[in-house]
């Protein structure tokens, strides 16, 4: 019995390897984006804490000028850090989207080659079936012809 050999198997293997690499790169980009989001969340919490402390100090009976100045400066600094971190999150999201597109493209290429392989395998099975039918027909013709010649 004949063995199926897909002549583009090396290319299919390469496409599978490229897709796996792209999956890893996508996972890294996703981890970076999550990390940037976590940093932003931490900055927002810190800014809220500074804002709450400033409100408490201003509402308290004893006004500490140094602490008020420190907290206002801290709030200003936190706003700047938050804005910068929002840009970092946006940059990470853009990088993630680029990696997602690359992964989708790698998947499409792999699936295309898998479909080609499946089509080649179906053709192989049809050829093999046709050869079997031909062999059966020849055997039947020979057997029928031999039996008729004996009569």
Automatic annotation (TrEMBL):
Domain of life, source organism: Bacteria
GO BP, one annotated term: chemotaxis
Any one of the GO CC terms: bacterial-type flagellum
InterPro entries: Flag_assembly_chemotaxis_eff, Flagell_FliJ
Pfam families reported in the protein's UniProt record: FliJ
Topology relative to the membrane: Peripheral membrane protein
Subcellular location: Cell membrane
Keywords: Bacterial flagellum biogenesis, Bacterial flagellum protein export, Cell membrane, Cell projection, Chemotaxis, Cilium, Coiled coil, Flagellum, Membrane, Protein transport, Transport
Coiled coil ranges: 14-53, 89-123
Similarity section: Belongs to the FliJ family.
Entry protein name: Flagellar FliJ protein
